[in-house]
Amino acid sequence: MYYEGDMMTTNVAETMAKTHKAISIAEFFEKNKHLLGYENLQKSLLTVVREGVDNSLDACEEARILPDVYVELQKGTTGDNKFKVIIEDNGPGIVKANIPKIFGKLLYGSKFHRLRQSRGQQGIGISAAVLYGQLTTGKSAKIYSRINDGKTHIYELHVDIQTNEPSVVGEDTVYGSGHGTRIELNVKGRYVKGKQSIYEYIQETAIMNPFAKIVFVDPEGEKFEFPRAVEELPREPREIKPHASGIEFGTLLRMMKNSKARIISGFLATEFSRISSEKAKELCVLANIDPKVSTTSLTRDEAEALHDQMQKAKLQNPPMDCLSPITAKPIEEGLKKELAPEFVTAVSRSANVYSGNPFLVEVGIAYGGNLDQDGSVHLMRYANKVPLLYEQSACAITKSVIQTDWRRYKLSQSGGSLPVGPVAITIHFASVWVPYTSEGKEAIASYPVIIKEIKLAIQEAARRMGVYLSRKRRANEVEERKAIFRRYVGELAGALHGLTGKDEEKIATQMSELIEEKLKTMVLVEEPEDSGHDAEDLKDVDNEIPDEDNGEKEDGE
Predict the structure, then answer these.
(1) From CA 192, how far away is CA 66, in angstroms rounded?
(2) pLDDT tens-digit readout, 78-106
């Protein structure tokens, strides 16, 4: 029996049901563009440039081509904070069929499902820039692509908000030699100079990508060239399979469902890194599962037991050739080229693991030269060779720098702040999956093991700087003493001449040589370098870090 109130509730539910509909990804980001870095005009213009340059560098590296990247900003004709952004590279180009989806469909790309280091990860960046351009100016993006087949494919397109599919406005093919990609976007933004500017982004990119040549033309028509410092690309990263220690239970269920392996032991051995056939059988036995049972017939309880054993298993760390470190020497060359310091050093750490994901840390320190003498150090943060210019205080890199006691390395520092001095610090975090704190990709999450690795790399580079500064201080002291002695050499030589009758000039020369020889030893004495790590700096994180690097070999390896 239904009452009037029940009927009213039913009618309301049916009315509400008619309003329910799916939301496309493009529609979601249209209303939430701040999640992707488009939260104000200054940052939005920078984000557009960054996404285009990152794509160009990634494409060139993957094709093993030394990158030449051209960036130009042209002022809009109406003078209302509108710009035409042009980014062109000498990469491999994009085949005609893929151009519309790469630039006109969000969450479309080749990198999301691959476990290997790359700048982009999610297939959102450049298509989101296209979306932002059409939202703020109403104009489509124009793309030119050459793949060395004698043709240039030209597309004019935008993103269909309702379907998250590319909408092609115009298409053409003309003759043109060579290879590369060019994109032209009309966007609303605000161009600034100084901190968090496009110039700063490109200069920092040139430092940590010293194998790239970048040309930047600003809205006033001024041209800036950032030449290549090294002629060799970093090693090419290789794709790896997931590591069992970082897999979520739901992901395990999905992988079993989609696997081509027929039995569970075969699934473990083929779908995960560092699990041999023997180890797969051992995990099944520990979970009370028949190693030959079909992946499709495994119960949920059995799958949960297997997942539990996978997390407990002592497995060798995942392969580290999935990473592409810049290495110390190129980092030093990049710093020298752009900053011209009087001293530079760099450290490239061995790889480690967080939540099953390989990562490594590289640190470069430059001192003196034209660097600011009075302000805080210039900290440059990077993730997979990309500069991070915003959200500095929320980043694991910044926290690691602040937590380091820089007074040990001859720099002044107040509690809870960056050190002060004519120093530039570059810190590069490289990983198959960077744990960003947000979709804006501006800060790295503070995993304890990540904090520890960053601090160890900082300390190794900072100790070298400390030794250099100690030598410099002693050299200055020696010069001061030399000046004092030289002041009295003439008088002393004259007095000795009067007492001994020997040649006064010869006495002065011998005394000067003696002073030089005795004082030279003060500079040559090397300050002992700390052979261990700074335990005081690390004590806060040591107890929090899980034993992720047990290094145990698999059976049969």
Answers:
(1) 30
(2) 667 899 999 999 999 999 999 999 888 87
